[in-house]
Specification:
The protein is an alpha+beta fold. The protein contains 4 helices and 5 strands. The protein has a single domain, classed as Nonspecific Lipid-transfer Protein, Chain A (2-Layer Sandwich). The two termini are about 15 Å apart.
Length: about 100
């Protein structure tokens, strides 16, 4: 799956969930996806801004998580996913992924 299709899928999902009151950033290799949930709705962009939580992984691992092929806790424990910042915010991601 291309980065554009991942970005569009996150935009679609983010539009269907309530804003979570913070900024969350995915770093997929060199690509950035920022979800700004501080307003009335979640806004998804490719801006590289400061975020309360940054999740770093590669696109393949992200897709495995999204498709339910990889357990999120195992991905973190094995180092395939790195989380920096608010772990509580990271836990709210089930609704987006």
């Amino acid at each position: 799956m291309s980065f554009e299709s991942i970005l569009n899928a996150i935009k679609d999902q983010a539009a269907n969930v309530a804003p979570f009151g913070a900024k969350l950033k995915f770093q997929l290799g060199d690509d950035i996806i920022l979800i700004d949930g501080t307003g009335d709705s979640n806004i998804v962009s490719q801006n590289d801004e400061e975020a309360a939580c940054t999740i770093s992984t590669d696109a393949d691992t992200f897709m495995q998580l999204k498709n339910g092929e990889l357990n999120p806790m195992m991905a973190v424990m094995s180092g395939k996913v790195k989380i920096k910042g608010d772990m509580g915010l990271a836990m709210k991601l089930q609704s987006l992924i």
